[in-house]
Input
Amino acid sequence: MIKKFIKAISKPYLIPEKIINTIRFNSLRKKYNLRTYENDQNLKFDQLGLDREKGIFKLKQLKKQNPVLIRAMSSEHETLFSSISLFKKKEYLNILEIGTHDGINSYLLSLLFENSKIKTIDLESKDYEFQNSYNREKNYINFIKQRDEIIKERKNIFFKEQNSLSLINTNEKYDLIWVDGSHGYPTVCIDIINSLKLITNNGLILCDDVFTNKPKNQDKTYSSIATFETITALKKEKLINFHLIYKRLEVKNNCDPSKRKFIAVINKNFF
Output
């Protein structure tokens, strides 16, 4: 609290804007109806042929059995993966994850799709961007150690230090691709294009952290409208179709439309 106060008074010219933003947020929060958005989310899953409630139930059971999956930064992508794993009309035998991070999502995928091969890639540990993003600056060595320990527990996870841009040189095919590396231009645009080359017929490409409004503090790593602009352009040319589901439903994350994030579910149109 003290740090926030000191930071605020260090830039007094920003105080009026912060006051206005706080008033606006409180107004949006009071109007937010969680049940309405939960129903809307269920409908979005239905449109994809998925049962969200069953996905939630399966996910809860897995988390009870595997405490490593319990974390503060959980989002609807976990429910989405869980629901997809219950979809009987398609087998997802080869899965690619772009952006391993701490390995927990890889672990989840390996449990949900036990008969699948999970390939997960992230930047080399010596890469400057890897060492200096996601608050890893001072403890990236311990971060790597913990990540590797999590990954080694599951035999169907195959981790590789690899810049996702190099996927342009591979001919492997995947039934499910999770795009969760850098979220800005040019990287995410290239990741999506490469994924379209690598996806199988009727396969799914999922993209995390999709902003439909340009973030105020847009950057190349965390917050960008790049994914939405890329998939919108591809859809305009009838190369893909996509659906958006809410990333989080909690009031603090979803009540402000200008800051709301989504997960994109993409189908490639094969001609």
